[in-house]
Amino acid sequence: MFQEMRxxxxxxxxxxxRDIKTKYRRSILGVxxxxxxxxxxxxxxxxxxxxxxxxEIKNFALYLLTGQIIFTFYSEATNFAMGSILxxxxxxxxxxxxxxxxxxxRVASCGVNLCFTLPAMLAIMIYTGQTISFKILFAVVPxxxxxxxxxGVGMLLSALAVYFRDMFHLYGVALAxxxxxxxxFYPISIxxxxxxxxxxxxxxxxxxxxxxxxxxxxxxxxxSLMGLCALLAIVALVVGYYCFNKLQNQxxxxx
Amino acid sequence: xxxxxxxxxxxxxFNLMEEKVDTFKEYIVKLLKGKLLFNEFVALNDVSxxxxxxxIIGIVGFNGAGKSTMLKILAGxxxxxxxxxxxxxxxxxxxxxxxxxxxELTARENIFLNGAILGHSRxxxxxxxxxxxxxxxxxxxxxxxVKNFSSGMYARLGFAxxxxxxxxxxxxxEVLSVGDYRFQEKCEKRIRDMINKGTTIxxxxxxxxxxxxxxxKVLWLDCGVKKDFGETQKIxxxxxxxx
Lengths: 255, 243
Known about the structure:
- By secondary structure, chain A is an all-alpha fold.
- Chain A has helices at 2-7, 9-24, 32-52, 60-82, 84-87, 89-94, 101-127, 140-163, 166-181, 196-200, 203-215, 223-247, 251-254.
- In chain A, helix 3 crosses helix 4.
- The longest helix of chain A has 27 residues, at 101-127.
- The two termini of chain A are 25 Å apart.
- In chain B, the strands form 2 sheets. In chain B, strands 5-6-7-3-8-9 form a 6-stranded mixed β-sheet, with helices on both faces. Chain B has a 3-stranded antiparallel β-sheet with strand order 2-1-4, with helices on one face.
- The longest helix of chain B has 16 residues, at 181-196.
- Chain B is globular, with a radius of gyration of 20 Å.
- In chain B, strand 6 (169-173), helix 6 (181-196) and strand 7 (200-204) form a beta-alpha-beta unit.
- By secondary structure, chain B is of the alpha/beta class.
- The chains are: A mainly alpha, B alpha/beta.
């Protein structure tokens, strides 16, 4: 499998480049949108929520931005990966290519997109006077683990979407629910004690917690939180890969 | 002679569902009604043959005989229901030219994308870029998105990319019927060059004349069954008489 990976490394690169190119083709600002988009979204949400709801959160801009970066990456990567098999059907029918490359390359291109948004986050950190220390480097850990988690979920979804097209509609609703179940724009303290278990069922909660610990609270997240993130990532990857592998030989009959 | 492709007792069965079940609701409703009937359709039935190095195999048969299914199995796109296929060496599939083109990207970008799909490295493609463009005669259109290409240009580009490398085995499915007379000749010449270099070639075509000109062996499939395999002239004559 590793040999195969090496052989097709070039293909993964080309697929990622294609995704990014087609995403920004014919737009004047191009890749700058990757930076601008989360910032503009943050400004709007910040305006709405700081005036309307008045949460007591210090440095609300950064709090919001960290939440949005994590959630947007997850929703984009999984959503984009879900359609990867169906949208590459013409290819899969004609040429042999290891099929897991398609969800993988899509999650990877969202990962590249994520990297473009990080300078925007850094700019906001500097602008709001957030203390930046070497600890910021630890932000990579939750992001990498989240990447693996997305890969697992993306593989599972892309395989399921081949058999049941309903997944596209269903998952849209699921993402909306997940959006509210993740503390992106509200503090965790406003969640009533009896509902906190719902939040703890949400895997994104842990990734966001770890990411915020580093970026927003400037502390290194404790090992149990990191361990949990890693465990979730591995479980997602194993389940996703297993299901994908089981279903992939039949893909061609359904696409 | 060395055997490069060995097909042993390959069968391919498809489930022909009366209607395709695409949604959860339909699936559950049909499951409850016990209506998930699978009409089995046998596209290939117990086909075996060997291809030796340097062979030029033509596959003939009427529509629905299982020719394309056979090619897809050889290319590794389809997994046979039973039986096995062993292939030694690299395969360049030409099942449909331009299968991996992204219409939004330019010819230049598509050469790199499509080349990568066929397993070429970026460096290799850079070295052979001019050769591909030369063969496809697309000098003026290198930076035009391929969605604006005519079907002939599309086919020319696809053929040029797929045949740039000296693969051990080349699979050709009816692709030569696109493009004008001049380009068809050019493709045939290229295939001849590859034959001279010792490439094994598998061709599916309804153009019996071309099969007679190029191939040294012919596989005749009829309704998924191997009807005959061997000498080109003998089988082609039988096939023509059958028509």
